[in-house]
């Protein structure tokens, strides 16, 4: 593999590569698809805790959404079908599990959505193991290629990966925090940044929300790392097909460009694969009729006050399960009377109904600096 520069390709070069990989070169160019897997990555951090807090800026979630372009080779471009081939993985860092906020971004979108993964079940991860888990996802064995090496010790062949991101500089900073450098992955052949690809004289650095609006995508639960990774991939594909349509107006009047429908169908497919999606708590992996059992077996150190739930770090033995913590809902206990009041991690000295916790006292909570007294603001640990 030629040396790779781990910075996003410039706009023109990136758009050309994208066009080639997706086979959107029009009739004039011989069809020669570079064979690759797109892997979109999005990292969330605790940027909303006070700056003096030990966990300020810590990575809290990593989302990776992949699309194997071998699965979309047949037929005309079809964004609805392409989106249904996307696979998403959502890691939550167990040592920041107790952190959450009610703050919103300047669009009014809640900054905390770690418990609202829309495309499957979240996975709890240890900080020191996350690097290898990400590398595993970015190293995909190529089953179509024969292995070389000796018969007793065949050498594995891996698929080429084109990394996709939105606003590269931010991700790079956080990757250093989890000791991951893309050089050591060994499969990444190029980097595409949707902010670069979709930039224009009017919007030099367009935000993800703006780009999604241009493609009629109605995002649910932004700022969840894996949701945003899926949306970034949608923007990448949608932008490429839009350019293809404008360059080839005669051949693509009938193209299906409905990304939103594709995402809805993707969620239905995932729900069927993982045991359903609960209409009560919205989580994947169980149906509503099993929600009582689900809540009672998956609630650990969580408190319900009708608005906010604090989620304490889980015991290590449970961290490898793919079950996500349930979402807060005031109706839980009334709908399931047998459930009873949930145990929770708030301090006994806190008044009823108040769930904020003195960080220094939180058992097993985020690393607090000795001697620091933290204010109870609108973030919670
Ligand atoms: Zn449920």
UniProtKB/TrEMBL annotation:
Cellular component annotations (GO), alphabetically ordered: nucleus
Stretches for region Disordered: 330-381
Residue stretches making up the Gfd2/YDR514C-like C-terminal domain: 37-237
One family name in Pfam for this protein: DEDDh_C
Domain of life: Eukaryota
Protein name (record): Gfd2/YDR514C-like C-terminal domain-containing protein
Organism name: Lophium mytilinum
């Amino acid at each position: 593999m030629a040396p790779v520069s781990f910075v996003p390709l410039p706009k023109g070069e990136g758009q050309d590569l994208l066009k080639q990989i997706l086979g959107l070169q029009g009739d004039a160019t011989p069809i020669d698809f570079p064979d690759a897997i797109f892997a979109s990555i999005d990292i969330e951090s605790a940027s909303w805790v006070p700056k003096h807090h030990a966990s300020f800026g810590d990575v809290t979630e990593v989302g990776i959404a992949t699309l194997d372009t071998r699965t979309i080779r047949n037929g005309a471009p079809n964004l609805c079908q392409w989106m249904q081939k996307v696979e998403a993985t959502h890691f939550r860092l167990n040592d920041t599990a107790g952190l959450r906020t009610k703050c919103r971004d300047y669009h009014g979108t809640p900054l905390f959505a770690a418990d609202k993964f829309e495309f499957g079940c979240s996975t709890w991860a240890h900080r020191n193991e996350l690097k290898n888990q990400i590398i595993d996802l970015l190293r995909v064995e190529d089953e179509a290629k024969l292995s070389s090496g000796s018969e007793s010790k065949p050498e594995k062949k891996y698929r080429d990966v084109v990394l996709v991101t939105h606003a590269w500089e931010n991700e790079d900073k956080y990757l250093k925090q989890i000791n991951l450098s893309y050089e050591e992955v060994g499969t990444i052949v190029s980097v595409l940044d949707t902010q670069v690809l979709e930039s224009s004289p009017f919007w030099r650095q367009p935000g993800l929300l703006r780009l999604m609006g241009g493609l009629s995508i109605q995002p649910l639960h932004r700022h969840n790392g894996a949701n945003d990774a899926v949306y970034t991939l949608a923007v990448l594909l949608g932008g490429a097909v839009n350019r293809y349509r404008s360059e080839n107006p005669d051949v693509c009047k009938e193209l299906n460009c409905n990304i939103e429908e594709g995402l809805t169908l993707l969620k239905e497919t995932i729900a069927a694969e993982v045991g359903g999606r609960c209409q009560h708590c919205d989580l994947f992996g169980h149906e509503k009729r099993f929600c009582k059992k689900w809540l009672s077996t998956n609630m650990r150190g969580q408190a319900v006050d009708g608005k906010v739930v604090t989620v304490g770090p889980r015991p290590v033995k449970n961290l490898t399960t793919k079950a996500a913590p349930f979402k807060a809902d005031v109706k839980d206990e009334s709908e399931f009377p047998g459930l009873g009041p949930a145990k929770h991690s708030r301090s006994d000295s806190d008044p009823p109904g108040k769930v904020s916790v003195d960080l220094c006292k939180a058992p097993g909570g985020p690393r607090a600096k000795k001697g620091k007294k933290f204010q109870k603001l609108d973030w919670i640990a």
